[in-house]
Amino acid sequence: MHAASVVVPARDEPRRLERTLDSLAAQAFDGSLEVIVVASGDETLAAARAHPVAERVLVDDRRDGPGSARNEGAAIATGDVLLFTDADTVVPRAWVRAHLRHYATPAVVGVGGPLRPLAGTLRHDVLFRILSDWWYRVSWPLGFVQQPGCNCSVRRSAFEVVGGFDDALSFLEDTDLSLRLREAGLVVYDHRCPVATSSRRQEREGYVPLFLAYLVGYLEYAIPGLSPTREHF
User: Fold this and answer.
1) CA distances from 220 to 145, 173, 179, 223, 227 (A)
2) Confidence of residue 224 (pLDDT cuts 50, 70, 90)
3) What is the average pLDDT score of the chain?
4) What is the pLDDT of residues 100-130, one digit of tens each?
5) pTM for this entry
6) Kindly report the CA angle at 79 between 73 and 82, in degrees rounded to 5?
7) Do 191 and 213 form a contact (C-beta atoms < 8 A)?
8) 62-68: long-range contacts at Cβ-Cβ below 8 A with a sequence spacing of 24 or more?
């Protein structure tokens, strides 16, 4: 039994995955930490299996998106707390410890934190801070909790109660989980616990189109009988 388990979905990105696993290997955490990679692509699987921090490596045969991959990893995890990050993300040395400290409060069932760009211009820095930090600070107290998939954790017992990620959603699956977790307990936003993630999505699609895509997704999610239709990026 581990104190915490980290699940990393990885799809065809061996070089980025190595950097993510290096950051997990460097964690300043005294407890027992389990790292599980759910990967697709021969090179990505080879990179995961070769890295000493990856205790378990699963083959993602379904390739349905990050939600189903995270569920596969969570199904074999033994930690009391499940942490999730992505293969294009680097976490700070105190990341696990920062998340776990919140679970000393029994009512807490989930934790989320902000995102920063791994590399980029002042424009990326400012827009990430607005959209991936300040937006959370405003929306969270209003009840619209949105744990980002690459920087979130869940109390295992609560994750099982709400049924994990919805495999049918390929977009906003992390927001959906967060809102369902809110019914099980307290979901905390910790602005002092950022992770650095790739800005390739923003560079490829642009901030305005991405904002509009999320806006449409939120509306589809909110309207009864509809669900977000966009495929995962």
Assistant:
1) 17, 13, 15, 5, 5
2) low
3) 90
4) 999 999 999 999 999 999 987 888 899 889 9
5) 0.92
6) 60
7) no
8) 63/11, 64/167, 64/170, 65/169, 65/170, 65/173, 65/231, 65/232, 66/9, 66/149, 66/165, 66/173, 66/232, 67/165, 67/166, 67/167, 67/169, 67/170, 67/173, 67/174, 67/177, 68/165, 68/167
Alpha carbons within 13 A on the beta-carbon side of 116: 12
Q: Which residue has the tokens 């902000």?
A: 114
Report phi then psi at 38, rounded to 5: -115, 105
- Any idea which residue has 């697709």 for tokens? 40
CA 137 to chain CA centroid, nearest Å: 18
Distance CA 69, CA 7 (A): 9
Tell me which residue has tokens 């998340």.
99
Instruction: Write the Ramachandran bin of 65: left for phi over 0, alpha for psi from -120 to 50, otherwise beta.
Output: left
Q: Which of 59, 56, 57, 199 is nearest to 120 (CA)?
A: 199
Identify the three-state secondary structure at position 14.
Answer: helix
Contact 81, 100 (CB under 8 A): yes
Residue with tokens 């990679």: 37
Q: Phi and psi at residue 57, in whole multiples of 5°?
A: -130, 120
Instruction: Give the tokens for residue 228.
Output: 């977000």
